[in-house]
Design a protein that fits this description.
Blueprint lengths: L1 E4 L10 E4 L9 E10 L2 H8 L5 H5 L12 E9 L11 E5 L7 E5 L4 E3 L6 H5 L2 H13 L7 E5 L4 H13 L2 E6 L4 H6 L4 E4 L12 E6 L6 H4 L3 E9 L5 H10 L4 E4 L6 H12 L7 E6 L3 H8 L7 E5 L6
Parallel strand pairs: 8-9, 8-11, 9-10, 11-12, 12-13, 14-15
Antiparallel strand pairs: 1-2, 3-4, 3-6, 3-15, 4-5, 5-7
The structure holds NADP nicotinamide-adenine-dinucleotide phosphate.
């Protein structure tokens, strides 16, 4: 099968298309023919081994896992003998390492679900990663009905997910993004939008119960004046937020929280329900064929993408 591989850490140019062996499903696994996948920020961190700690998980000198990719959608090709919920021909989506390939094997009990009706493969591939990150942030910020929430970086993958999920949970959402994305984030459920090029939310006198930095470009230090006295600053990036989360547990009233729970099967199932109920949708910026992965990755690394960047395979996006 065709797959995107890399044998060393580095710039997007280390990625290349190669013929590799097709995986064989175990008894409890499903073999999925992938129709769409994405380039996420996590793929970029892993490919570049940046920050350095990725090397402790992926291989100190070179990547042990040659194929990147986390999100996928596609059609079940074959199933293992013990699989009961899925059968050949089912349209499925989910999360699995190594999805920048024509086929992936996924455990039936893993991060896998039937595709919601009426979404395309591209849309189904572009929902799980940002949603997992966004939902984890909202949970750790204890966001619910009436929470005054500010989402910084509301137009990225994690940001567009967080805005939709927070609106679903009944929060009052203020979204901070570039003015060109204001209409988009409003359509996703933001009650108020602040254009960061025109206004600095830290200087407008408003306060929030929770500030979610969905893009890893703000800090508690700069934003603390915009939090209510026992407010929470939810981080999604920047290693210094780990010690800060620990320190602010004991010192000061305003806390940093940083969720590292990781992907949950129940979240993928919840997402399917939300999409079917019309409460969640994929935000796709650009779509590239798999073989243009280097160009797609460069675009993701420009920090200019809105929502998600999709790679398509097998010529099918519907
Ligand atoms: N995606 C995930 O699911 C995931 C998973 C694990 C970790 N993370 C972490 O979560 C963070 C966000 O990832 P992501 O994939 O959601 O990012 P992303 O989609 O690549 O973010 C792109 C967005 O960032 C906004 N942006 C760029 N510079 C900005 C700035 N200085 N101030 C405010 N907004 C700015 C841009 O918005 P405008 O065009 O409006 O400026 C653009 O829409 C990253 O730090 C990543 O490491 C994400």
């Amino acid at each position: 099968m065709r797959a995107i591989v890399h044998d060393r850490y580095g710039s997007p140019d280390v990625l290349r298309l190669e013929e590799v062996e097709r995986p064989v499903p175990g008894d409890d696994e499903v073999l999925v023919k992938v129709h769409a996948t994405t380039v996420t920020r996590t793929d970029c961190h892993m490919r570049a081994a940046s920050p350095f700690f990725w090397r402790f998980m992926l291989g100190l000198l070179r990547p042990r896992r040659r194929i990147l990719g986390l999100e996928f959608s596609g059609v079940v090709e074959t199933v293992g003998a013990a699989v009961t919920e899925f059968g050949p021909g089912d349209r499925v989506f989910g999360l699995r390492n190594g999805s920048h390939a024509e086929y992936v094997c996924v455990r039936e009990a893993g991060l896998l679900a039937h595709m919601p009706a009426a979404v395309t493969f591209a849309e189904a591939a572009a929902v799980c990663d940002g949603m997992s990150q966004g939902l984890a942030g909202l949970r750790s910020g204890r966001v619910g009905q009436g929470t005054r929430l500010l989402v910084y970086g509301a137009s990225g993958s994690c940001g567009t997910a967080a805005v939709q999920l927070a609106a679903y949970l009944g929060a009052h959402v203020t979204a901070v993004c570039n003015g060109k994305n204001a209409e988009l984030v409003r359509s996703l459920g933001a009650d108020e939008v602040i254009d960061y090029e025109r206004d600095d939310f830290t200087k407008n006198g408003e306060t929030y119960d929770v500030i979610l930095d969905a893009v890893g470009k703000h800090s508690l230090l700069r934003a603390r004046g915009s939090l209510v006295p026992r407010g929470l600053y939810v981080a999604t990036d920047r290693l210094y937020n780990f010690p800060l989360a620990y320190l602010t547990k004991w010192i000061g009233k305003k806390k940093v929280v940083f969720d590292v729970t990781g992907y949950q099967r129940d979240d993928v199932l919840l997402l399917k329900e939300l999409i079917e109920a019309g409460r969640y949708r994929a935000v796709i910026d650009r779509t590239y064929p798999l073989e243009d992965v280097v160009e797609a990755t460069r675009y993701v690394e420009s920090w200019q993408k809105t929502g998600n960047v999709v790679l398509t395979l097998n010529g099918a996006i519907r």
